[in-house]
Design goal:
This protein is mainly alpha-helical and 155 residues long. It has a domain of 107 residues: Ribosomal protein L17 (50s Ribosomal Protein L17, Chain: A), CATH 3.90.1030.10. It contains 5 helices and 3 strands, in the order H-E-H-H-H-E-E-H. It has a 3-stranded antiparallel beta sheet, with helices on one face. It starts with 13 loop residues before the first helix and ends in a 19-residue tail after the last helix.
């Protein structure tokens, strides 16, 4: 007997989880690339892959089925006009999840989910340079520097 692999709960109620995945899917279809946590990205991939597969049929019924999940006319239009045309005859694998460094605030695993056919070579403007930790952390000092009125440590 086939056992269904359970979906991630993402620490939310069923309605909140459905709304979150719907919003992430909508944003992915509109912007083609979003940054989120790794667990949300993997769940969004499951949802979006099924949506794009339905959209490839191109029927009115498919549009109505997809509109149940994605309640945004602009995203539906982009899906049926641009994305389906670009996907063409690809048999699945419409999205890619790329893992990133952990988030600074809470060390959550981060990832970028993107549509495969819309990826472009990273340019200098897209690269985000790593900030100097001393600039990000309030009150931190570089080695050897002292603030006015503070005695240097004797080490």
């Amino acid at each position: 007997m086939r056992k269904v692999k359970p979906a991630r709960k993402l620490g939310r109620t069923a309605a909140h989880r459905k709304a979150t995945l719907s919003n992430l899917s909508t944003q992915l279809l509109v912007y083609k690339r979003i940054e989120t946590t790794e667990a949300k990205a993997k769940e969004t991939r499951r949802v979006v892959e099924k949506i794009i597969t339905k959209a490839r049929k191109g029927t009115v019924h498919a549009q109505r089925e997809i509109f149940k999940d994605i309640r945004d006319k602009q995203a539906i239009r982009i899906l049926f006009e641009e994305i389906v045309a670009k996907v063409g005859s690809r048999n699945g694998g419409y999205t890619r999840v790329v893992k990133l460094a952990p988030r600074y605030g809470d060390a959550a695993k981060m990832a970028v989910i993107e549509l495969v056919d819309y990826t472009e070579a990273p340019s200098a403007s897209q690269k985000t340079g790593k900030q100097d930790r001393a600039k990000r952390v309030r009150g931190s000092k570089k080695a050897g520097e002292t603030t006015p009125g503070e005695q240097p440590s004797a080490e």
